[in-house]
Amino acid sequence: MSLMQATGAGEPNEVRVTPTATSPTADAISNTGKDEQMAPSLSRFQTAVTALCIAANSLTAGSMFCFPLIGPSLMADLSLSLKQTNTIWVGAVMGEYITAAFWGALADAFGPRPLSAAAAVLFGVGYSLMAHGDATAVKLNRAQQHQRKLAGMVATPYQTSSSLGFVPMTFAFVLVGAGVSASYFSAVTASTRLFPSHPGLAISLPLTLFSLSSLFLTSIGSHFFIDATTGDLSAATFLTFLAVLLTITNGVSTFFMLAPEVKPSQAEGVKKKRVTVQDRAVSMLADERLPLLSTNADSDLEENSGADQARSTANVGASSSSISLVPRSASLRDFLATPSVWILALLMFTAVGGAEMVMSSVGSMVVSLLGGGIVTPSHGATGSAVTSADENSPDLPAMNHEALRWRSMQVQLLATANTLSRLVSGLVTDFLSPSRPKAPPLSDTSDVSATRRILHFVGNIRVSRMTILLTSTTLLTAAFAFSALALSTLHELVGVSLLVGIGYGFTFTQVPSIVANAYGLRTFGRSWGLLTYSCAAGSLGFSLLYAVVSDVVGEDPARQDGTHVPLGVCLHGRSCFQLSFALAATGTAAATLLAVPLWRRWRTYL
């Protein structure tokens, strides 16, 4: 989930790309140009401190992706349906997207520190409101249970009205989503300004740390914020921890993230095309002749400028003269009238939307697959869900802790697979790209060793970006289909999480690279930015679809066995999500098939 916007400042051919929190490639880019100069360099100590701030912001910014760990506890504590719970998640996604353009403009104008200050406030307020709402609901439920016991009535869970916390909790998570975007924006802006001669490294390292945020934070939550009475996550305490941690982290960065300012060059009379860090980062997507991590990006570009002059002058698409199904011009009208744009948008809607459905609902999938092991919750202590055993059973904490362990494991698997697949995808794309020249044939003499022949053969293998993209969407289709037809155990869910993480990471890396090559660098920010809105729509649609299906199946009277089942909890295994995954598999498969003609046209160029 990410967004890039072109700010349109500067000369006509200048590319200004503004990223958001989850961009898979060239996510954040500063506006340092060849005719711009940096302010006086920082000392080694200042550079080290700034680098630590960048790392800290990146490693904590993705806190919203801990939601599968927190969501089931919030659902229990606030008596929410799964539809309401997933709407809270959608609030964070919308908060991230809606504020992206604003943070981009702010970063360009004032640098990274104001963004860190804003993130500190947004995280502090957002997570504090969530923690307060959860703690208030737990206290209310305790009081209600106590009153019922005094009156001699049977204690029943979930007396809190869901409307008490649903709307405020959604609003709070919108603030958190905006904070995610601001914090990561701050980190990558500072990174590209601090290390202008290493644009690839400056962009990729914050992105990698950001992708690991959920793994890092869920590990802390599942180990140190367990309620001793129930064995489940203490949601209010963990949310308070996140509020404190992220407020301090971004607050410190507000004062100590001393990225050099960008100032216009005083040299006059030199009229060169402005080659910004944005251009360099995106150019690495479009031209494999440039090294992946250049030690001197400026000189690399100058050495290649002669060969690339024709293409960089037009800058409208690789391609517009050599491949078909691309916009006839750089206008928005022609872009929206191009069939390939809608094919890619449909792929992103179904594949990314389905993958993010898993990312937001995997905690509920764990509960559903545990089935009869979790039946009724109790708010006598913390409001966490408890099992069908008596709430005073000595096995209760162990059973709840097991459910928490599996939820945490799935989040960590998704984060790890997503991160590694993005890193591998970039390397594989560069190495296998059809535009990379092949090595000349080897001599047929006996002096050539078998090892060299094998390396020569492997080095000349070419696989297009479209092939890699459709392979990744096929993996996602297989994961969705398996979940709909055969998933029945938590151990099988491990395989699903790995496949989804891999497919998601490869898809979200390949599409922007294809966009940069096919539609051109001049309009890359606009083109990719518009396409990412299909990801947001897919995430919203599939996450709510999952919730509605799960709620309907969980509340079906024909499936009840006389045991009270709390609101929002579906305990019927695969039936709770079968229809959702069937539709996701069907949609992704259809979108993949529709993209086959595009693959046939583009495979020799991209």
UniProtKB/TrEMBL annotation:
<feature type="compositionally biased region" description="Polar residues">
    <location>
        <begin position="19"/>
        <end position="32"/>
    </location>
</feature>
<feature type="region of interest" description="Disordered">
    <location>
        <begin position="1"/>
        <end position="33"/>
    </location>
</feature>
<feature type="transmembrane region" description="Helical">
    <location>
        <begin position="118"/>
        <end position="140"/>
    </location>
</feature>
<feature type="transmembrane region" description="Helical">
    <location>
        <begin position="528"/>
        <end position="549"/>
    </location>
</feature>
<dbReference type="InterPro" id="IPR036259">
    <property type="entry name" value="MFS_trans_sf"/>
</dbReference>
<keyword id="KW-0812">Transmembrane</keyword>
<feature type="transmembrane region" description="Helical">
    <location>
        <begin position="161"/>
        <end position="185"/>
    </location>
</feature>
<feature type="transmembrane region" description="Helical">
    <location>
        <begin position="493"/>
        <end position="516"/>
    </location>
</feature>
<protein>
    <submittedName>
        <fullName>MFS general substrate transporter</fullName>
    </submittedName>
</protein>
<feature type="transmembrane region" description="Helical">
    <location>
        <begin position="48"/>
        <end position="75"/>
    </location>
</feature>
<feature type="transmembrane region" description="Helical">
    <location>
        <begin position="468"/>
        <end position="487"/>
    </location>
</feature>
<dbReference type="GO" id="GO:0000329">
    <property type="term" value="C:fungal-type vacuole membrane"/>
</dbReference>
<feature type="transmembrane region" description="Helical">
    <location>
        <begin position="87"/>
        <end position="106"/>
    </location>
</feature>
<feature type="transmembrane region" description="Helical">
    <location>
        <begin position="205"/>
        <end position="226"/>
    </location>
</feature>
<feature type="transmembrane region" description="Helical">
    <location>
        <begin position="238"/>
        <end position="259"/>
    </location>
</feature>
<keyword id="KW-1133">Transmembrane helix</keyword>
<keyword id="KW-0472">Membrane</keyword>
<feature type="transmembrane region" description="Helical">
    <location>
        <begin position="577"/>
        <end position="599"/>
    </location>
</feature>
